[in-house]
Amino acid sequence: MFTMQNLFIHGPWWLVRNLLKIASYVLLGAIAVTIIGFTLYAENPQGTMQQITIDESGNTQRKHLNIDWPEGVYSLSHLALPISADDPLYGRKEAPPSPGIKLGDLTLHGEKGALEISASYLQRQRWNPFHSYTQERALRFMGLE
Question: What's the pTM value of the predicted model, to 2 decimals?
Answer without folding.
Answer: 0.68
